[in-house]
Amino acid sequence: MLPSINASLAFNTLPVLLVIVPLLLSIAAFTRLLSIRHQLVIGIPLIALGNATGAWLVDHNLALVLDGWLLGGWALPIGIRWALEPTSLVLLTLTTVVAIAASLSSAGDRIKRHEYWTLWWLMWAALNTLWLSRDLFNVYVALELLSLSAAGLVALSPKDPYGFSALRYVLVALIASLLYLLGVGLMYGTHATLDIDLLSERATSDTLHAIAALCITLGLMMKAALVPLHSWLPQAHSRASPAVSAMLSAVVVAVALYWLWQLWLGPFKMLSMQPLFAFLGGLSLLWGGVNALQQTQLKRLIAYSTISQMGYALLLLSLSTDASSHALAQQGATTLLVAHGLAKAGLFLAAGYLVFYHQGDQLQQFTGSAYRLPWLWAGFALCAASLVGLPPSGGFVGKWWLFMGLWEQQRWLSATAFLLGTLLTAGYLTRVIAIALRPAPLPLATACSYAGLLPLLLGCLAWGVGMTLAIQNGYLALPSIDRTTRYFALPALLIWPLILLWQYRHPSPPSRFFAGILWLTALFHVIALTSQDWLTFYTALAWLGILGWLLILHGKASTTPQAGRTYLAMMLVAEVLLFAATASMALQGSLAFEKATFASLSVATALLVGGGLAIKSGVLGVHGWLPIAHPAAPALASALLSGVMIKLGVLGALRLTPDNASAVTAGEMLFYWGVLAALYGGVQGTFSGTPKTVLAWSSVGQIGLLSAGVGILLLVPDNDTLRTLIMLLVISHGLAKSALFIGAGQWGALSGRQRRIIGAGMTIAALTLVGVPFSGGLYIKSWLTYAISTQGFAGELLTFASIATAGAMLRYGWLLLKQPAADAPLNTAPLVSRWLWAGWWLLCASAWLVPLIWQWWLPYPGSWMAANIKALGVITVSGSVAVATLYRCATFQVKPITLSPLTQFPWRQATRSRFAWRVERQLRHWPVIGVMLVSVSSLFLIIYL
């Protein structure tokens, strides 16, 4: 008896706590009966209690809250019904969290105008009403209340002193409300009820319903700021105070979109307007993203981002409700709204504090700001990462589920717009972060403030949503160590401790932020190595791509900014490809490695996976970032990028090619392409102008050699010897290349005896890459040549790759010898320097010796001495030719062919050729708004007829 009484009590008090309390507080604020502090102390706990009560009711008495409340006791179809369903509960919770954070931010900003708090509580009450209501006219009343209170809050902002933005907001909202009311009137005249559930049962697809649907849809589209009816939003959101902007962007526009879902998945479902919403959703995604990319003011950038992000949620209505994936897509769209609301509120709150601290909204004013306000920018970065969809954030889970629906229903144009929108989102948000990470022109002083905690908290919540859903659905498997992990972990165990210790004892560069990024990179590298499912592996790859970009930005070369942009652009393309592949793999079956193989995947999925992994590794054809980024990065970062991080693409290929997999015929093409890459990388390295560029091109060649081996493995996946040789090559190349990059980075600071000692170590590492007699490199390449030849392929082609590598290594040594020696030793602490160099020498020696250990377990099948004699002859001939060639070319520069660095996006040129800006200005004119209404209506009628 007691539980039923408690349920009844909770059921009856829910509307009071969620709606009546904020209405009473609005009256108290208007009449000044309560101070602002007392309003917050009373209102926030009571509304939060109401939200918690609703959650308890949904969990324990779902049927009770679905039946809902009949206001005034009037029965349907005349009465007005409120109800609480799981989707509305989730969005109600979002409203509560964001409104509490925004209220605390407003109180912290000492906003004491009672008019402000009157409208604030009124807006909160209207939002809660919209989540609870099931009556279309009640929704109209709440929308009017919401629009008037939101416009009033915008008008109170000091950034809108004359109220122009607020007035435009009010006029647009008035037109939208009239359109909505016209549609509601048509529906009531037809069915004599406005309860959405009853309308869903009675509605048909005749012309009258189509006209009503058109009017209501146009009204809600204007309120949701969907392109092309969005022109009011950028000014209103960017000029409002930070807390108001957070509410407007996180929940006010979301509630209009929510009611579009309710209507088009309910009463208007039979009208079949999926093409219309596919077009409008894609248009909002791309148009909002392009305009955000061109902004020079932070708040306007975030405002345009809202327009773009709403396009994702609208794509839900482009899907057929009959497909099996629609329910998952609907969950994804809801998750996306929640994650977007949390992240966008965090971004606007962070932007408000940044504008206040820097006394301006121009992006260039935030140069170096990340070092002054680290916690604030940490919150900004977390929110931005969720908005982009970096796994396993809430934004990623929502996008992933929604994209699975698009993929299963083969909505290829919408899927393409979806992926392009993700690239645009990453582009404009990383641009802001890159500006904040630039070296500051003035001495830095860290500003300590609790204001940065709210964005950080909201960002953590956005990530917590995604991680909770991923764990609940069993997407993430526990880490494990297997045979493949042990092979790839061996170079990591030698490289990572040395680099972390080097950065600690001899910082290069001297930056705590760089050191922190190194530790994070190490963590995600471990996750990648020990992952047992594709999603965990993809998560680590995505994070390592972003962290690699941050490492490159610490380089001191003049080309570092361009190199960072080139690297980031390529990595983002790889993330998008792997994201689409992950969705497709999930639809085809399990994400566990033992069940997901190249042979079992569809051709499209295999191409997506292969393309993403190829970019990550720097395979020929998509290698353009590698010879640009590696030379520009700090030496320690280059050692990591080339020594361990690019090998993860090979690890992914091996994971998807287990011993029991079927053969893949594309392996033959990959073999020859890899051999070509090995030759091309060596030749380009031979004619490069700096030591680090030579090493970068050499990495392209070595990745080509690994690609050739993987190609043969795809044809014979049960060949354990070949698999072992590929992993040994990973070990040898990783150790040698890390040692060479570190040596090249420190070479300019060495002199005399130090140069001779370090030069000897680099000689060992370089000769290992070439494969000279009695080295581990020769053992691997000789074995690899034999294994490939036994499969009927021209294994001897690898000999030419060794010759090309020899030329590159000779060029590397020549360029080092030309560098002038330092006047003083590198380190005045001999003991520290000696231990660091001892660890570095261990890398060089291990690259030579470790592969030879396998001679005991995997003896070379032919004559080992004959192989060494043959290698000696090849090295002698090729070395002579290379020396002659280098001597001949010493008097002139030969520029290697490479992908040009991505030039900086023409932000300044936008003042001369800003097509999107001109269009945006035109869209603000009232006649143009009318034309857009007619255009959308015409498109609607064309599809309907």
UniProtKB/TrEMBL annotation:
<dbReference type="GO" id="GO:0042773">
    <property type="term" value="P:ATP synthesis coupled electron transport"/>
</dbReference>
<feature type="transmembrane region" description="Helical">
    <location>
        <begin position="241"/>
        <end position="261"/>
    </location>
</feature>
<comment type="similarity">
    <text>Belongs to the CPA3 antiporters (TC 2.A.63) subunit D family.</text>
</comment>
<feature type="transmembrane region" description="Helical">
    <location>
        <begin position="923"/>
        <end position="944"/>
    </location>
</feature>
<dbReference type="Pfam" id="PF00361">
    <property type="entry name" value="Proton_antipo_M"/>
</dbReference>
<feature type="transmembrane region" description="Helical">
    <location>
        <begin position="694"/>
        <end position="716"/>
    </location>
</feature>
<feature type="transmembrane region" description="Helical">
    <location>
        <begin position="511"/>
        <end position="529"/>
    </location>
</feature>
<dbReference type="InterPro" id="IPR050586">
    <property type="entry name" value="CPA3_Na-H_Antiporter_D"/>
</dbReference>
<dbReference type="GO" id="GO:0005886">
    <property type="term" value="C:plasma membrane"/>
</dbReference>
<feature type="transmembrane region" description="Helical">
    <location>
        <begin position="375"/>
        <end position="392"/>
    </location>
</feature>
<feature type="transmembrane region" description="Helical">
    <location>
        <begin position="301"/>
        <end position="321"/>
    </location>
</feature>
<feature type="transmembrane region" description="Helical">
    <location>
        <begin position="169"/>
        <end position="188"/>
    </location>
</feature>
<keyword id="KW-1133">Transmembrane helix</keyword>
<feature type="transmembrane region" description="Helical">
    <location>
        <begin position="208"/>
        <end position="229"/>
    </location>
</feature>
<feature type="transmembrane region" description="Helical">
    <location>
        <begin position="78"/>
        <end position="104"/>
    </location>
</feature>
<feature type="transmembrane region" description="Helical">
    <location>
        <begin position="412"/>
        <end position="430"/>
    </location>
</feature>
<feature type="domain" description="NADH:quinone oxidoreductase/Mrp antiporter transmembrane">
    <location>
        <begin position="133"/>
        <end position="425"/>
    </location>
</feature>
<feature type="transmembrane region" description="Helical">
    <location>
        <begin position="869"/>
        <end position="887"/>
    </location>
</feature>
<feature type="transmembrane region" description="Helical">
    <location>
        <begin position="632"/>
        <end position="650"/>
    </location>
</feature>
<feature type="transmembrane region" description="Helical">
    <location>
        <begin position="792"/>
        <end position="814"/>
    </location>
</feature>
<feature type="transmembrane region" description="Helical">
    <location>
        <begin position="567"/>
        <end position="587"/>
    </location>
</feature>
<feature type="transmembrane region" description="Helical">
    <location>
        <begin position="12"/>
        <end position="33"/>
    </location>
</feature>
<dbReference type="GO" id="GO:0008137">
    <property type="term" value="F:NADH dehydrogenase (ubiquinone) activity"/>
</dbReference>
<keyword id="KW-1003">Cell membrane</keyword>
<feature type="transmembrane region" description="Helical">
    <location>
        <begin position="273"/>
        <end position="294"/>
    </location>
</feature>
<feature type="transmembrane region" description="Helical">
    <location>
        <begin position="442"/>
        <end position="465"/>
    </location>
</feature>
<keyword id="KW-0812">Transmembrane</keyword>
<feature type="transmembrane region" description="Helical">
    <location>
        <begin position="835"/>
        <end position="857"/>
    </location>
</feature>
<feature type="transmembrane region" description="Helical">
    <location>
        <begin position="40"/>
        <end position="58"/>
    </location>
</feature>
<feature type="transmembrane region" description="Helical">
    <location>
        <begin position="535"/>
        <end position="555"/>
    </location>
</feature>
<feature type="transmembrane region" description="Helical">
    <location>
        <begin position="757"/>
        <end position="780"/>
    </location>
</feature>
<dbReference type="InterPro" id="IPR003918">
    <property type="entry name" value="NADH_UbQ_OxRdtase"/>
</dbReference>
<feature type="transmembrane region" description="Helical">
    <location>
        <begin position="670"/>
        <end position="687"/>
    </location>
</feature>
<feature type="transmembrane region" description="Helical">
    <location>
        <begin position="485"/>
        <end position="504"/>
    </location>
</feature>
<feature type="domain" description="NADH:quinone oxidoreductase/Mrp antiporter transmembrane">
    <location>
        <begin position="531"/>
        <end position="784"/>
    </location>
</feature>
<protein>
    <submittedName>
        <fullName>NADH-quinone oxidoreductase subunit N</fullName>
    </submittedName>
</protein>
<keyword id="KW-0472">Membrane</keyword>
<feature type="transmembrane region" description="Helical">
    <location>
        <begin position="139"/>
        <end position="157"/>
    </location>
</feature>
<feature type="transmembrane region" description="Helical">
    <location>
        <begin position="722"/>
        <end position="745"/>
    </location>
</feature>
<feature type="transmembrane region" description="Helical">
    <location>
        <begin position="116"/>
        <end position="133"/>
    </location>
</feature>
<dbReference type="InterPro" id="IPR001750">
    <property type="entry name" value="ND/Mrp_TM"/>
</dbReference>
<feature type="transmembrane region" description="Helical">
    <location>
        <begin position="333"/>
        <end position="355"/>
    </location>
</feature>
